[in-house]
Amino acid sequence: MIIGLTGLNGSGKGEISNILKEQEFKYFSLSDIIREELIQKRIDINRQNMIEMGNKLRKKFTPEVLAKRILNKLEKGNSYIIDSIRNLGEITILKTLPDFYLVGIIAPLKTRFERIKKRKRD
Questions:
Q1: What number of other Cβ atoms are within 10 A of residue 45's Cβ?
Q2: What is the rounded CA–CA span in Å between residue 77 and residue 91?
């Protein structure tokens, strides 16, 4: 089974992921692909650079580039969580996988704001 998670920052995707990891799901985030690219190019990892690099990758390749790169990391027989799904191109690619389910996580703005403040990150 592959569960894809989408939702705004602070919506609770991380908490859902933690629960699923306890059930032996392996975790991947499409954002990790962007982080790998930033590390390779020796660019600081921060929110602005993440957004810019994600946009560059999607423009240079295709909107679904991050999902395509994640596919190369999946092994048969395992259950996965794929976090940080952001666009229809990514969904289109991931929907081709057997047993793929997309889950949208929603939380009120005030709740999301409080969660993000607690992270103390950029």
A1: 13
A2: 21
DSSP string, 43-112: ---SHHHHHHHHHHHHHHS-TTHHHHHHHTT--TT--EEEE---SHHHHHHHTTSTTEEEEE----HHHH
pLDDT in tens, 43-79: 999 989 999 999 999 999 999 999 999 999 999 889 9
Token readout for 5 is: 């998670």
**Could you tell me the two tokens for 111?**
């709740």
Angle of the 47-60 helix axis to the 30-40 helix axis, nearest 10: 100
Per-residue confidence (pLDDT) for residue 121, from 0 to 100 = 66
Distance CA 86, CA 44 (A): 22
Which structure tokens are listed for 120?
């103390």
What's the rounded Cα separation, in Å, for the pair 43 and 99? 36
Give the tens place of pLDDT for each residue, 77-103.
899 999 999 899 999 999 999 899 999
